[in-house]
# Entry
Amino acid sequence: MTVVASNYARKENDLYQTEPWATEALLRHFPVGVGSFIWEPAAGNHMIADVLRKHGASVFTSDIATYDRQNAQIDFLLSGELETGMFNALITNPPYGKGNRQAVRFAELALERCDGWVALLLTAKFDFGKTRQHLFRDNPRYAAKIALVDRIQWFPGDTSGTEDHAWYVWGPVPGNCCGSARMIYEGREVPA
# Structure
């Protein structure tokens, strides 16, 4: 498939709501449940958080703004020291920004602030490039890439998205995955 520019205007604060199937695809390989306390720091309207809760996790939601659902108003990229030791995972679809620069910073801060599992939904080619080796090749916590073989629909209607996406997953500190991350393929449907 060819990646083409969307005909839609960019949404304020990069509010792109993740379809539930995309989070289910992550959880088929990295399940959560009772005892999981997860921070969703780019919660939007809680599409990811709702799926996590359905699986039994406790979820703290925050975002740069409040949309249709209440959450703590925290700018993840600008906030200084945050008390994050209570969370055993951070799972989100962060803002990407121009050239994915915000997404890079978001990933760096997520890994600094969460000693547990970190899963970020990003573009499928996000791991390419020598400027991101510290997040992937050289990072002992980098555990897996879950490539979504179906495209996420970000806008209403019958059209699919114009870009491929993947979950990038980092394991708990201290990490021992360096050079041995798993490559997984997932889609809307549960494999038979």
About this structure: Strands lie at 37-40, 58-63, 72-73, 89-92, 117-123, 142-148, 165-170, 182-186. The first strand starts at residue 37 and ends at 40. Residues 105 and 127 are 14 Å apart (CA to CA). The chain has one domain: 16-186.
